[in-house]
Amino acid sequence: MKVGIFGGSFNPVHNEHILIAERAIIELGLNALYVIPTFVAPHKKGEVVASGEDRLNMLKIAFLSNDKIIVSDYEIKKQGVSYTYLTIRHFKKLHEGAELYFLMGSDMLDNFSTWKNPREIVDNANIVLIERRNGNYNANKLITNFENTFKKPVTRLKVYGTTVSSTEVRLRVMLGLDTLSLILKEVANYIAKTNLYGDNPLYNRVKNALPEKRRVHTLGVILTACSLAEKLGVDKKKAELSALLHDLCKYSDISDFPSGTVPENAPSDVWHQYLSYYVAKNELGVTDEDVLNAILYHTTGRPNMSKLEKIIYIADLLEPSRTFKGVDELRNAISKDFNSGFLTCLIEIEDFLVKQGKPVFDLTRQAINYYKGENYELN
Ligand SMILES: [Fe+2]
Ligand SMILES: [Fe+2]
To answer: What is the pTM of this model?
Structure first.
């Protein structure tokens, strides 16, 4: 008898989870696979986590038709931090004599030795690495490290479907965007019916202010900004908030704002950065100066920008729905070296504006001069 264990926060369960579960059953020849949502995923603190009951309900809906899959409330019921060695102990007892297979992602395998009682886990279960498409890691190296440390082989489970993240699903729901390419229709219906993830006032404000296309752009800016923030050691929550609000007033009427909100000589393309800043500060109660400045200078840039300001500027320009000529080269420049890539982006923008016969705002010129100078000194 072979029994699999597949844990996670499942917040919510998405199409890639379903694919992983189905592949695991076939490839590993499992008689049963337990899908076990964690009570609280310790690394996900600060994110919107649906209640245990809702996550269980969505899993039951998603796996209804596969009778080898058992959705387990073991960790939810137990409450507190979920320790894998205890979960393994529990299922070992439940299925005496069975061979256990524990499924994990690359990040889990990477920090496995820091878990509680890793030896007990390895002694009682086969470790299965879920290899996803576009995984930003070296599987061979991870496995070699693991096998050298624990003297146990790792089973590889290749799941090369579309990469989906629960974070994107939640953001899409919060921005009122379609989720049907990421989750089952039945799960989407459950989320809609229960208004899961739907009661965030700032997201609702953006949802009501922007047309669909601009919300898709905002989603892209949030995801890009958060991933840059993580890489550069900037607070992800601040990146998310700045990205969420950066284009809030893209479609607002300037005459609805007090005079002086926008500088007199500012071209109309940049008005919305001043208006969005104004609303964030005066109506939405945003007090963090860095967040406010990231919104305020996201179109023009300025000299001496903070890391967060640069992140929002870059995310706005290069998020996935941007398709202008040369965008991939700029993405490469940024991933190679953030600061010099940033200057390249500023210069490209100036070039673009000049070629289009559009005005280059003073602030943008000042920013370019400033960063060119800085670069020159660095060299
Ligand atoms: Fe903008
Ligand atoms: Fe934007």
So the answer is: 0.92
